[in-house]
Amino acid sequence: MSWREARRISDVAFTEVCLQAIYAFRQGAAPLAGGLAGAARSARRRVVQSKILIAVVLGLVAAGGAGILADAPHIAQRAFFGVVVTVPVLQAGVLTGLLSLDVAFLWWTGLQVLPTFLASGVLATIEPLPIDDRTLGRVAGLLYLRLFDLPAIVVLVATPLFVGLVLGPTAGIVTIPGVVCAVVFALALALVTGRAFVRRVQGSRGGGGRTVVRWTYLVLWVLPAFAMFGFSVAAPGFLALLGRTLAAGPSVGRDVLLAMYPFTFAALAPLSTGGTASLTLDASGVAILFAAAAAYLLVAEWSVGWLMRSVRRVGLAPPVAPREMEVSVRDLVPHGPARAVLTKDLQIASRTPGYAFLVLFPVLDALAIGLFTFVTGPGSNGALALALAAVTTAALLATFFGPAFFAIEVNAYAYGRTLPLADRSLILGKVALVAAVYGVAAGLVLGITVLRVFQPAVFLAFIAAEFPAVVAASLLELALLFRRARKKGTPLVSLYAGAWYAIAVAIPGLILAGIPLIAFHLLAAAPVFSALLIMGLVALIELALAAPLALGLPGRRPA
Amino acid sequence: MGDDGAGGLPLVIDDLSVVYGERRAVDHLSLTVHRGEIYGLLGSNGAGKSSTIKSIVGLVPPSTGRIRVFGLDVATDALRVKQRIGYVPEASMLYEALTPREFLEFVASVRGIPRLDASARTNAFGAAFRLESELDEPIASLSMGTRQKVLILGAFLHQPPLLVLDEPLHSLDPRSVRIMKDLLARYVTDGDRGVLFSTHTMEIAQQLCHRVGILDHGVLRAEGSLSDLRERAARGDASLEEVFLSLTREDEGLDAAVRALEGA
Fold this sequence. Notes:
heterodimer; A: 2 domains; two-stranded antiparallel ribbon; 21 helices; 2 strands; B: alpha/beta; 6-stranded mixed beta sheet; 24% strand; disordered N terminus
């Protein structure tokens, strides 16, 4: 069969991927009143919306990078850790960052999407059909590519386009091999690591020690999402390293740098506009650069073939490698319903990278800012400001990601609805999770900065004053989602299946979480404890308003 | 089988209709499960069995009609109804990322089952179904049969007075089927509990059910014990399968269909 036939089959199969991702019929969700054709259209539309959202972020990253490139002559006047870099070196550095971000974002998107793709079981469905092996491989490969199509197209088009607009058409054209490699490497990395993580994390047995191992893996999983943060934090040091290494002339370090992706491709744009002198490269340097670029292109070509061959194998492999069964005798330990929801969500998150991300990102973000505060060692007041910023970020991130915890209910949502679990308990369990994420993140910052910040009372009061606002925000968000679920069926709010819902309900949540923070900053001139008192009062009023709405006034049904 | 008035009956369905868009899955269905009774709901694919059961457990809102469980209305007293029901769904809908032990812990928590009782029942069922070595494996990695055993365990965990079982023996191994049949037969002998049981398998219904109802395109065509149905179908010594096919008129053209397949 031809590629055309493979594309036709993959089109049908992709609808099934979308349908299962959104409506989870395989988990027993009830049929929809509007019929399946409407559901299929709606599922595809919602997946496209989510892809657009990711693509917009990638487009903004490319535009931001181009903005820095345009401002390069101005930025290059500053010293980075005592090293003054030339404009071409700065350009190469920015492009290195841009290509790294492209790889990281696409890789991370793939890690989020892969479990959905594998869980849809679509490859196992088409496998028994009388389709030849080659076409089945092509269908699987095309299906995998479709998961990324719009974001990948934006990377392939936007980055060379913006670079071309700022540095000239030649620079734009020579950027193309770099972005092609970025897309191919990201897709290959997503498949390799995604599959490994699915097996090691999703397939992990129960038990305390294994839970620690799972969360350790999950921390690694989340790290690509910190590319933006890492880039902005590490950029000055990286530019200083680049400036020093290139200015020093031929050396092993320089040769390694030239041969290292993505710098190999990032160097091509300044070379195309300023010649070899712009990066002080001799003939051997240029040879290494082009040889490395050619090698990466060959690896990319091989990777495309590998992807087309491997998606089918990966999609059909059992989720857990065969192993010896162990018998362990352990009592069940029932809790109260709300705590049971919290425990269940954490257990599910520990085997589901998409949810683990929601738990880990605010915590790791706070940790990173806390460490930055500790390492850079600003004065006491500066450190306090940074620590407060870390807590602020943790509060806003926990609030922003909170709605997505609702999507956990879609895994067996139907079964959950047959249990005598009150909406109130379900909402409280999920709010407890958001509050716990905020508490752990704020606690980490406190632990790190207590060594440098000498106003622990102020810091603790700030954490406590914001706490009711975080709870109020997540109560409001979850109440809105529940209302929607009752009316129209379960709204899925994962990155791939329904980012719009998450964002729509996160906006009022972020407003609630943000008002006390804004109040605190507006009262900067007042005595700090007075400002904190007012901040806390505002947060408590929000909680007093949100709680009855979410949990139900006495005698009324909850939202 | 005891019957102490409508208020105390395990299940009373009155004039239930379930409509999906333009399709009427259940059409003005009324039936009753008495105390001490196993009631079999029989029907072809798409007859409305699962829609009926999903309405009972609160998954699908009825378009018309009323469902009462031990006198409690499903529409207005959902939580108390759910406390009294143990449910095995048709599809294996479970939290795939949990292990069976974690899943059962969640079910026990929500149902407020004391630790000792929950553990004792889990261990007993685990041993009977030979599940012990799989209690700590992720559900995503379990076979269909093992998932079904986990669902059955979840349904029995609180020893509910009403069991609502949608194709419960589906994909079970013969040993487990035998255990389930014996268990269900004994479960209702105290005269207080009831079981609603849907199946395609006529032999099992014939062996296990005190009464059966035959659903056809959402309509209850016939109801009663096997002898009642034989009488109604005027098939003196027929098997339940023959009675079913006759009452639903699905025996019409049966031989012709088989011959057509032979020649295909």
